[in-house]
Write a structure and sequence with these properties.
Length: 233
């Protein structure tokens, strides 16, 4: 499923950061998620790293070309705001999945992550999928862990082969509620430059569940030197 999920993830994940109007860009923090901070400098480094790796990976290019509009398919030399928003969305979603797993007592073992990567065709293939989704290769295991958690939550609520259409929709709605609860618990705050709000209502195509108001803006003087989730170790 990790191998085939990238097209849906690109369509859904890119819509999670919601524009909230013309607000001045805040320096320092791209996002604050609980007691973790993603700095603008770290986000730029991540996207620059992704850009270099993506250009050198033909499979990632083919996967991304099949999921995005023609004007979004290939990265430019300069880092664009859309690339930054996409990477930030992925990083926040990974952190939200970890919080959902904690709250729902979902234990993800290294073996489960290894198994999903193996299903994708091995680590090299999983890294290409990660690049196609807008993150550098080093986040392959993070993205796989997110997929394991998301699949587990969906299946717990009835998503699976043989489920009725209503049951599938109920499972998606309940999953979005759990992620919305995680957003509130962690008090997720997004720099207005990247949207200003994090909305889980578009996790799945066709969903119309409105769960998140506009979040508070970051303070103008916030700088910080925090690293991205997954950078440590």
């Amino acid at each position: 499923m990790f191998r085939t999920a990238v097209k849906t993830a690109l369509a859904a994940g890119a819509a999670v950061l919601v524009l909230t109007g013309c607000q001045p860009t805040k320096m320092g923090s791209a996002a604050i998620i609980g007691d973790e901070r993603i700095t603008t400098a770290a986000l730029h480094r991540t996207v620059q790293e992704w850009n270099e790796q993506f250009r050198a990976d033909p499979e990632a290019n083919m996967r991304r070309a099949g999921a995005l509009a023609p004007d979004q398919r290939l990265p430019m030399d300069a880092v664009s705001d859309s690339q930054l928003r996409e990477a930030l969305t992925r990083l926040v979603m990974i952190r939200l999945s970890d919080e959902v797993a904690r709250a729902e007592r979902i234990a993800v073992s290294p073996g489960q992550i290894d198994g999903l990567i193996e299903q994708a065709g091995g680590l090299e293939r999983a890294e290409s999928i990660t690049l196609a989704s807008g993150l550098p290769e080093r986040h392959a295991r993070d993205l796989a862990r997110h997929e394991v958690i998301l699949q587990t939550v969906l299946m717990r609520h009835g998503f699976g082969p043989g489920a009725t259409r209503d049951r599938l929709e109920q499972a998606k709605q309940q999953t979005m509620r759990l992620y919305a609860d995680a957003v509130r618990r962690l008090d997720v705050r997004i720099n207005p430059r990247y949207g200003g709000a994090f909305d889980v209502s578009r996790m799945f195509d066709g969903s119309r569940l409105a769960v998140m108001p506009t979040v508070p803006r970051l303070s103008r003087g916030e700088t910080g030197t925090g690293e991205l989730p997954g950078d440590a170790g």
